[in-house]
Amino acid sequence: MKFISVRDLRGKSGEIWQDLPVEREMVITSNGRPVAILAAVNESNLEEALAAFRQVRAIEAVAAMQRQSVTQGTDKLSKLEIASEIASVRKKRSR
User: Fold this and answer.
1) How many of the other CB atoms lie within 10 Å of CB of 26?
2) Could you say which DSSP state residue 12 is in?
3) Rounded CA gap, 82 and 86, in Å?
4) Buried-exposed string 51-69: b where 16+ CB fall within 10 A, e elsewhere
5) Is 27 helix (H, G, I), strand (E, B) or coil?
6) Is 63 strand, coil or helix?
7) Which CATH class is domain 1-40?
8) Which end of the chain is more exposed for a tag (fewer CB within 10 A), N or C?
9) What pairs with residue 29 in β-bridges?
10) CA–CA gap between residue 74 and residue 64 (Å, rounded)
């Protein structure tokens, strides 16, 4: 996978657009750190590419919630404790 700085993206955008269909994906960096992914799409695969991207984001969100649950110790709650928490939140919302 090719890494491109933000500076190169600004200065060599023509070359990058030519390379993108061959490379398929490129990582954009700022100060050496990844900040974005540039992916080749076309009219026929745009919706599929967006759906895949959104699915990955959802999976990442679930994984982050699971890690947070382990950190907070809430991964060990019983079903009864979970039901109690849900009931408590619902009660507060209904007020």
Assistant:
1) 20
2) S
3) 6
4) eeeeeeeeeeeeeeeeeee
5) strand
6) helix
7) alpha beta
8) C
9) 5, 34
10) 13
- Tally Cβ neighbours within 10 Å of residue 20: 17
Distance CA 27, CA 3 (A): 5
Query: Residue 28, Cβ neighbours under 10 Å: how many?
Result: 16
How confident is the model over 37-89, as pLDDT tens digits? 999 999 999 999 999 999 999 999 999 999 999 999 888 999 999 999 999 99
* CA distance from start to end of the chain: 53
At a CB cut-off of 8 Å and minimum separation 6, what does 60 contact?
A: none
Residue position matching structure tokens 């990058």: 16
**Residue 51, token pair as written in the block:** 């759906």
pTM for this prediction: 0.65
Task: Give the residue carrying structure tokens 């999976």.
Answer: 59
- Ordered by start, the domain boundaries in the chain are 1-40, 43-95
Tell how far CA 15 is from the center of its chain: 27
